[in-house]
# Entry
Amino acid sequence: MAPVTEIVLHSLKPGTDVESFYKAFAIIKEKSASQVIRASTVHENPEQVGIFIDWDSIEAHKAFEADEESYNAFITLAKPHLTKFPLLFHAELTPFPPVVLNNAEGKGKTPVAHVLFTYFAPDTDAAKTLTDAQNFVSKLTGAGFAGLTGESSLGWSVEKDIDFKGEKTRV
# Structure
């Protein structure tokens, strides 16, 4: 069982106090075997929130969901802030844990992380595509852009049926 990062993109109701939404995650921290929970609004759209939860495995995440009392308490606190069901998937990232998401205050080197999701057909050659992505990131790092620290984390979604514009994809 490989460690995974659960990636969740939530759309918040207009006017939602983000800090009160974040309080719901105390239940996950307290009642599960999650390793780290990171959350941030999306710079370009502050009503969208990215949540990144590191788990020992997908099974550890499912164990939290199976704890009905804790899981339902989390949903009860989170649901009033959301406009729709979120995009949710698990990714096997390298390196793990993805410290690039820790930001500078979390003792990472990167003050701001840009998260890029690229959607592919489920049968895409994963190894070749990941190698191409690693080469692309290396070129960016070598280009000397101001503020680029070289920290990155790359990988594939475990799920191969993530809906994107009506098509089943892999992220």
About this structure: Residues 46 and 76 are 22 Å apart (CA to CA). The chain has a mean pLDDT of 89. The longest helix spans residues 126-142.
